[in-house]
Amino acid sequence: MNIRKLIKFLWNTLVIGGATGIIISFIIKWDTYVAYLNPINWMELLGLLTFFVGLGLTFAVVSMTGYFAYLYIHRFGISLFRSFWPAVQILLIAFILFDLIYFPYRGSDGGIGIYWLIFGTLLFFLYSWFVAKWKQKETNTSAFIPTLFFMIVITTLEWTPALMAEGSDYVWLMFAPLLACNTYQIIGLHRIANRVDGKSKKDPARNETATPKKGKQSATTKA
Length: 223
Fold this sequence. Notes:
By secondary structure, the protein is mainly alpha-helical. The protein has one domain (3-202). The chain is 80% helix and 2% strand. It contains eight helices and two strands, in the order H-H-H-H-H-H-H-E-E-H. Strands 1-2 form a two-stranded antiparallel sheet. The radius of gyration is 21 Å and the shape is flat. The two termini are 39 Å apart.
């Protein structure tokens, strides 16, 4: 990974965050857009689009900060817990999933149906599971749990300010860019890092078990 690749990686993340911010705003804030469409007020529409692009870019920066913090946490967890680190990650994932159901339900005093919270959390978990399997397929088996941890635990931590805000609009306006950016970062980094002259080379992690065998075989042949 060189500076050029890193800049491209960060730039792509910003673009994804800004684009997702605009797209989700069309869904969540459609009534606001309609108010400026009849009659058409171009200046207000431009200001609205600029605001939601800026919001998406802000959440993209939050996502990047969380991702690089995760890289440090992951290495620190390995050095501290060693072979128990995967189990610790699984416990934290279960704890966060429980929190996503329990605390919103308790905070709403029953105003939000618990079945909706369970359904939403399940969808979040299934999406994160899909991303983790995708990452595992492109790299190695050991990438599954860390990816699932990043997609659920780190995304939720980044999402916390919106969860504490009044109303649900900014919950989704923040969640969509975070999820899109985090997905790109966890899937895209190894692709960019392993790209040589515009072409992707095979992830060396896939050959980590094959290399010793070749070395052993050549040593036997020499003997």
